[in-house]
């Protein structure tokens, strides 16, 4: 539900503009007002989950998200909707920041954890794809208000179930990381950075606006790193970055998500503006990606990770994604969906279904129970920053290429296709760079070994068993 709300409004924007009177320049903020706080608060919220308890943070964020969703649906003017969307993004960040940390803590055994991370990966990817389908269906059938109202009963049910099912945690205590200046620095840096990126569509990459806000964001981020190195109780202990699997996995994720976020946006535009699909057909057109992701992340990927290790599963998954994007880089202006698009989508879905659970496993491989919320927050933060940056860069390249072709006398459909082709090829290159980074830096923690099991003697291990070559064998 949280991920879905980042995309569900996209197809409803024309209806929202007509009903509430948004100007063309302000309309993009219906999306951006959600993304800026979402990207900015993930790291802070994840750390607070470790300090005061992940269940408490999860329920608080979900409650905030649900109330804000109701306010979004009731909005009668642009200012109210944008304010509610900002609060909704904050609630979404607080909720999702601790989710992966809760998964690896609740499921310490290797096979259970692999399955749980597979479900987590599927839910994330399905939320993005279903947003396009659900947004078109709800807007056409009931009006744009219902893309927000639908969250309310789901959110209420989720809060009740969380209160009943999840085990309460006390956390390690605020005294372990109450670094208020650090919290202010990192939150301001991430929000300003995401803001600078999402506004490049209006101001351009070389504008004073983009360079100014981007420069301030980098300066604040540098000040945060210096603060964490010297603070008595740092918000983010820098030791977490010493593990090569953590830093390597986060780097690979930036490249992967930059490519995949851009693919989803640009593929929708190709289907609608070149092949002439309506909103509902577009949602159905990209749905095979979610089906393939579900089939792999819920079934094959956990078993493969348990047997061969996450690194061995990640590399072929990334290769399939790069191949799928390269195939989309050759789609013709008069293309056929079954011939030119569907095979690439299947390759992308299978590759992402393999890669994402493996990447999440590697990113969380050294997280202790005291740091799992922080690790989860970092994993989600790199997703948001990488996605926003990749989409801004690749969509700019696509527009520039299209404009150049139009200026040279190329027809509109061919010019649009040329722009999308360039962006898809660049996205394939980003994933190829991710393959090189993964091969050089990442090391599999071992097939059949829990990512959370090796941080203390006997952690995550059942009594009376020993391990032999990654296999659990009864003692004696």
SSE layout and pairing:
Layout: H1 13-20, H2 24-27, H3 29-52, H4 54-74, H5 78-97, H6 99-106, H7 110-142, H8 146-149, H9 151-165, H10 180-198, H11 200-203, H12 208-230, H13 244-274, H14 279-308, H15 310-328, H16 337-363, H17 372-407, H18 412-441, E1 465-468, E2 471-474
Question: Could you please describe the fold and organization of this structure?
Answer:
This protein has helices at residues 13-20, 24-27, 29-52, 54-74, 78-97, 99-106, 110-142, 146-149, 151-165, 180-198, 200-203, 208-230, 244-274, 279-308, 310-328, 337-363, 372-407, 412-441, and strands at 465-468, 471-474. The protein is mainly α and 476 residues long. The protein has a two-stranded antiparallel sheet with strand order 1-2. Helix 3 (29-52) runs antiparallel to helix 10 (180-198), helix 7 (110-142) packs antiparallel against helix 14 and helix 17 (372-407) packs antiparallel against helix 18.
């Amino acid at each position: 539900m949280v991920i879905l709300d980042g995309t569900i409004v996209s197809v409803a924007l024309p209806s929202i503009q007509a009903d509430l009177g948004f100007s063309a320049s302000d309309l993009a903020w219906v999306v951006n007002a959600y993304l800026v706080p979402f990207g900015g608060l993930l790291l802070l919220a994840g750390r607070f989950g470790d300090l005061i308890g992940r269940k408490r943070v999860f329920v608080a964020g979900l409650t905030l998200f649900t109330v804000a969703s109701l306010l979004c649906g009731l909005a009668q003017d642009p200012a109210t909707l944008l304010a509610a969307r900002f609060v909704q993004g904050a609630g979404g960040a607080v909720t999702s920041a601790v989710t992966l940390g809760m998964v690896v803590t609740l499921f310490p055994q290797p096979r259970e954890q692999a399955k749980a991370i597979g479900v987590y990966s599927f839910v994330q990817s399905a939320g993005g794809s279903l947003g396009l389908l659900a947004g078109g269906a709800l807007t056409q059938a009931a009006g744009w208000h219902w893309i927000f109202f639908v969250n309310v009963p789901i959110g209420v049910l989720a809060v009740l179930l969380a209160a009943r099912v999840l085990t309460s945690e006390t956390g390690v205590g605020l005294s372990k990381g109450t670094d208020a200046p650090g919290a202010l620095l990192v939150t301001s840096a991430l929000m300003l950075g995401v803001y600078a990126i999402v506004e490049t569509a209006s101001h351009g990459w070389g504008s004073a606006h983009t360079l100014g806000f981007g420069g301030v964001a980098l300066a604040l981020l540098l000040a945060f790193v210096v603060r964490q190195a010297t603070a008595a109780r740092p918000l983010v202990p820098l030791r977490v970055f010493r593990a090569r699997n953590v830093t390597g996995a986060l780097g690979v994720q930036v490249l992967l998500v930059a490519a995949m976020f851009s693919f989803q946006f640009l593929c929708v535009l190709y289907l609608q503006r070149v092949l002439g699909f309506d909103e509902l057909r577009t949602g159905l057109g990209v749905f095979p990606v979610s089906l393939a992701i579900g089939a792999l992340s819920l079934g094959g990927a956990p078993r493969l990770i348990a047997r061969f290790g996450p690194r061995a599963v990640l590399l072929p998954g990334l290769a399939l994604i790069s191949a799928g994007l390269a195939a989309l880089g050759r789609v013709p202006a008069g293309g056929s969906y079954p011939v030119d698009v569907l095979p690439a989508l299947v390759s992308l879905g299978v590759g992402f279904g393999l890669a994402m659970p493996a990447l999440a496993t590697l990113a969380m491989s050294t997280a202790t129970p005291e740091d799992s919320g922080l690790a989860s927050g970092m994993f989600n933060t790199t997703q948001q920053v990488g996605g926003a940056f990749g989409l801004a860069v690749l969509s700019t390249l696509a527009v520039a290429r299209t404009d150049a072709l139009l200026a040279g006398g190329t027809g509109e459909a061919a010019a649009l296709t040329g722009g999308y082709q360039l962006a898809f090829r660049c996205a394939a290159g980003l994933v190829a760079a991710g393959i090189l980074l993964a091969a050089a830096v990442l090391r599999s923690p071992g097939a059949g070994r829990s990512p959370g099991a090796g941080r203390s003697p006997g952690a995550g291990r059942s009594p009376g068993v020993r391990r032999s070559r990654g296999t659990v064998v009864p003692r004696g």
